Please model this.
Amino acid sequence: MGSKALNKFLTENLNDLKSKGLYNVINSLEGANGAIIKIAGRELINLSSNNYLGLATHPRMMEAAIKATKEFGVGAGAVRTINGTLKIHDELEKRIAEFKHTEAAIAFQSGFNCNAGAIQAVMNKNDGILSDELNHASIIDGCRLSGAKIIRYKHNDMEDLRAKAKEARESGLYNKLMVITDGVFSMDGDVVNLPGLVKVAEEFDLITYVDDAHGSGVMGMGAGTVKHFGLSDKIDFQIGTLSKAIGVVGGYVAGSQDLIDWLKVRARPFLFSTSLTPSAAAACIEAINIMTESTELVDKVWENGRYLKENLKRLGFNIGHSETPITPCIIGDEKLTQEFSKKLIEEGVYAKSIVFPTVPLGTGRVRNMPTAAHTKEMLDNAIAIYEKVGRELGVI
Ligand SMILES: *Cc1c(COP(=O)(O)O)cnc(C)c1O
Model:
């Protein structure tokens, strides 16, 4: 059935991936994505989510979603510019802007969509973008869509950024220049040197763009990496996702009123794709309520992160140089990493392997993400399993 050319392409490439052990089988969860998950009838301690604050299953969030569904329905009904701006979308944007200490904010259907829309709304083929070499795939795609020249600089290396910014400025080739970075890098858990970046940006008049998908809800008492450094007035674009710590789905850009006004008439995913569901918008508002009322969940994810890191380090694992609750366990060899993750899952810890091309060759790792919803007992059980598997495979 179907095109011969397509069938040939698919068969060859799928077989190639499978023979190299690189074909990823996606597990089906039999219940909610919480601290404990159920796969194929077995309960596992889940250390793979980005549900940092445990909000994905928080009773207040679910209640807010149900209430909004009853009031506004299940779908927004249209692209917002045509017919679909519900009061609840406006309210969400107002609350995000307050929370981020910016003049305004715009909500997108995902963090990925933010990068697909916001970069190309401002940058074009006459411009240059300085991009950290470890930036997220959606940033890379967003940069490509803009048509601007992409100039990669060494990871979090402000000397290299400065040298490349200077060269770009002096070349006279570019109209506008932008620097773009993750706030928190998800595979290592390290944090951008934002004061250093801002200094370079001021020297060379760079537009500043921070994608804080892993920092929002975690850094700066929940308000993010930019707030953590006290640099809210220095960053032009603050991107965040509503799908990780916030526990729902969606993304946003926070910035000046003029920037947000421009994105609302030029960001293509905003203009040509239907907006967030009312229930998602309401649940995100409730997440902001929860985070502003108390720092309990943010404190808890940091406490759990520290506890897991301390114990894995004590056992002799290489946990890299994370500065956040993200806890990589670096194994190195790709095959061994996959074997390690497979054994962890067999023993009851759901922690997936991450290998090339997501991380450089030879730095395969199992990435652990404790959340505010994990109890100490769950973490202790996970640590004991780590020890057992680590010894069995000669990793420690
Ligand atoms: C996860 C991630 C995104 C995508 O966010 P979604 O809301 O899941 O689409 C964008 N940028 C970075 C840096 C991310 O880590």
Summary: Residues 110-112, 136, 138, 182, 186, 211, 213-214, 241, 243, 251 surround pyridoxal-5'-phosphate (CB under 6 Å). The chain has 15 helices and 13 strands.
